[in-house]
Write a structure and sequence with these properties.
About 40% of the residues lie in helices and about 10% in strands. The chain has about 525 residues and is α/β, with parallel strands linked by helices. A hairpin with a 4-residue loop joins strand 12 and strand 13. It holds the Pfam family SBP_bac_1.
Length: about 525
């Protein structure tokens, strides 16, 4: 048995592994099948044991998904799953890795960079470089066409420890990921009340007041503006761009002078908070916006109670109808307009890892490589075709060997995706559209809105890239952020409701310094400088 760890937990894990190796038929990794020069489908079926996470909307057994059934038929490899949802997955994943009950691999692993590097240091997961070079032609083809991803996958020590998820949809400022929290305004109410679409923050305030006073939802059910504070796509931070640098989910922007900034330390951020407090004092904000969860947010939106709300795609909340439209960025009190870009891109570094308990590395690598086949990747990401038991996202054109998106027919795209797709490692490059697959109607529509409404007002030329920091840097960043970010988020919500941002601002900046904000900036800046020099 390979050595698993070198840390303080070595005795615990080593003992568990020895027990498992001594004849326990219920061990959590597969026996050594002694296979080499493998081609699919195998002559005799074998099994691998994986741990995974999936949506509560998906089947409890991943093998009930048509995508995995087809993969088993095509490869001759049966997957024995341990599948968990939500917070339970993280707990069981960590327990498996710390107790020695390790699977062959973990799909949809969800590790942070810091966790990846710690697991690598402990030799609980293995480097993948040689497996990729020797056994994974599909992934190699992706990296040849888009070599920037190899750099993003590679840790500072030169090793690759996880297989990524790659989804390209647009590029640069026009990437679909450039803005998460689109502002959706109730144009039906605007028309009913004879109001123009707001173009300034003052006009927006007046529109929201009109919504409040005329109660178009009826029976006092009108909510002029709703959100989920500090929650990415549902956060009202889109409005902050009218006052300066703006805000995004990780509070990090890069100026056009290549300087890394914390949005929450910008003077314009203070002015934005003051504006939000004005809305709060006028009873224009959803009081539940400071604590509600996604199901509650969706339920009220589906009832048509919102005048303005924020999310990625209105189809998931108010539906794909004409009642709501995208509100353009607003001019602030001094005429300033800015759409703050997120640092999002279609790249997740750690969608799958192989553990050091795995005794079938060639077999596992070649199975994972099937997930990077272009036709397969598209299905992994969105769902499949030919399923007689439920709605399909695609139909397959045999002659063109192309997956064509079907109409959603009112189904929320996120729900259909979570029921039928498998996530995991995959790659969808921009070159696939029109050759391997069509663009999803909702994505094409959103990309058009991004280009027309948002891109002209994006002042920043750069985003903070997917820097793979060193373990030492990540240790300091995680230590600092453990106190810094909760403090920023707490003050943000407090100030919107209590209006004390002006009187507390200087003390707040002092507290940021005490929480090692300057060191955080230095580490982030050093990482940015390294990544842009390469």
């Amino acid at each position: 048995m390979k050595k698993i760890v070198k840390t303080m937990s070595a005795m615990l894990i080593g003992t568990s592994l020895l027990v498992a190796c001594s004849g326990n038929s219920e061990r959590t990794w597969s026996e050594d099948y002694e296979l080499s020069d493998i081609s699919f489908p195998l002559e005799e079926e074998v099994s691998l044991k994986f741990l995974t996470e999936s949506s509560p909307l998906a089947p409890d057994d991943p093998n009930d998904k048509l995508i995995f059934q087809r993969l088993e038929e095509e490869t001759g490899v049966h997957i024995e799953w341990r599948n968990f949802t939500g917070a339970q997955f993280g707990e069981r994943r960590n327990l498996a890795m710390s107790s020695g009950e390790m699977p062959d691999a973990i799909l949809n692993a969800g590790y942070s960079d810091y966790e990846l590097l710690n697991l690598a240091k402990d030799e609980a997961i293995i480097p993948l470089n040689d497996l990729i070079d020797n056994y994974m032609p599909n992934l190699q083809a992706v990296l040849e066409e888009a070599p920037q991803y190899r750099a993003m996958m590679t840790a500072p020590d030169g090793n690759i420890y996880a297989f990524p998820w790659i989804e390209e949809l647009g590029e640069g400022k026009g990437s679909i990921h450039s803005v998460d929290n689109f502002p959706w305004i109730n144009v039906k109410w605007l028309n009913e009340l004879g109001l123009d679409m707001p173009t300034t923050t003052d006009e927006l305030k007046n529109v929201l007041i009109a919504f409040r006073d005329h109660d178009p939802a009826g029976d006092g059910q009108t909510i002029p503006m709703s959100f989920i504070i500090n929650d990415g796509g549902q956060d009202p931070g889109f409005l902050f761009g009218s006052f300066g640098l703006g805000d995004n989910w990780d509070r990090t922007v890069v100026t056009n002078d290549s300087e890394v900034k914390l949005t929450a330390a910008d003077e314009g951020y203070k002015d934005a908070i003051k504006f939000m407090n004005e809305l709060y004092e006028e009873d224009l904000l959803d009081i539940e916006g400071f604590e509600q969860d996604w199901p509650r947010y969706v339920a009220k939106g589906q009832e048509g109670r919102y005048g303005l709300y924020f999310t990625w795609d209105k189809g998931n909340i108010s539906g794909m109808n004409d009642d709501y439209d995208l509100m353009a960025p607003l001019a602030g009190p001094d005429g300033h307009i800015n759409v703050t870009r997120t640092n999002g891109m279609g790249f997740d570094r750690s969608r799958m890892v192989i553990t050091s308990a795995n005794q079938n590395l060639e077999l596992t690598a070649k199975w994972i490589d099937q997930l990077y086949d272009p036709i397969q990747s598209v299905q992994n990401n969105w769902g499949t075709y030919g399923d007689d038991s439920q709605q399909n996202i695609f139909e397959f054109d045999e002659s063109a060997q192309m997956l064509e998106h079907l109409p959603l027919d009112g189904t929320a795209p996120v729900e259909l995706r979570e029921r039928t797709s498998i996530g995991g490692p995959l790659a969808i490059l921009d070159s696939y559209y029109g050759t391997v697959t069509t663009k999803p109607d909702d994505a094409a529509w959103r990309l058009g809105l991004m280009e027309e409404v948002m891109v002209p007002h994006m002042q920043a030329e750069n985003i903070y890239p997917r820097v793979f920091h060193s373990r030492e840097e990540l240790d300091r960043l995680s230590t600092i952020e453990a106190d810094l970010m909760p403090f920023v988020n707490r003050k943000r919500a407090e100030w919107i409701t209590n209006g004390k941002v002006e009187e507390e601002w200087e003390g707040y900046l002092v507290e940021l310094d005490r929480l090692n904000f300057q060191e955080w900036l230095e580490i982030k800046q050093a990482g940015y400088d390294r990544s842009t020099e390469e």
